[in-house]
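Hi everyone, sorry if this is the wrong subforum. Our group has a chain we'd like a structural model of before ordering constructs, and none of us has done structure prediction before. Sequence below.
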Amino acid sequence: MKIQNLFDLNGKTAIVTGGATHLGKSIATTLGELGADVFIASRRENLCLEVASELRSNGINCEGLRCDATDEKEVEKLINQVINKTSRLDIMVCNAGGSVTNSYLPNASIDEFVKTYNINVSSAYICSQAASKIMIPQHSGSIITLGSIHGFLTGDKKLYEGMDFKRSGPPYQAAKGAIINLTRSLAAELGDYNITVNCISPGQIPKPGTDSNLVEKCRQQIPLKRTGTIYDIKGAIALLSSQAGSWITGQNIVIDGGWSIW
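Answer:
Right subforum, don't worry. Here is the predicted structure as tokens:
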């Protein structure tokens, strides 16, 4: 098979949770550029609709749907909506996540810990299970989770000294660590059904508006001497969602410019 054909996603259907912003939007764009029919899902329905319209104007077959990825019933509804439109699900990208950390030890909020865990780990588990119910009868599918370098490295508090910037802290790091091992476990559970499950762990990919001093501090720590962009994850998404990555499962692909080699 020619290499171009290995990456071809024409006729495939993909869901990207948290697909309307930052990494999620880049992931949705990548899948659409490779030919997939893409559904982006988020709690912010209006933003989903706006971004889906933007992607369609760029030639991508995309639709926006509202869904809280931490709510099992809403995820099931999302899957049913997609199946009713396309009759199949080939790619599930569990991208929804983030951190609600505002307090730190020794006065940390357990509620913030639980919420951070839920929006990252519970959402990935719920979405993976819902997707598997469709993929198992198909005997095919790709599930991609989003980890972080903070899933196996802790954060350096010194990077944030002297600036008004919320760092993620232990709740986020614990949640992303759980995502990485959840991925391995899901790969073991679903391998019998020809379903691959892999994780992508990005490094420092600043969002618009991130403190420029923090960005520069991070840049100096990276062997390649630049922070990442939303385009730097596109290659890994293309690999893991397509036939090109059909014999890769249970892996955590780190995309960090070399940050983690120190």
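For your construct planning: The mean pLDDT is 95. The longest strand covers residues 195-202.
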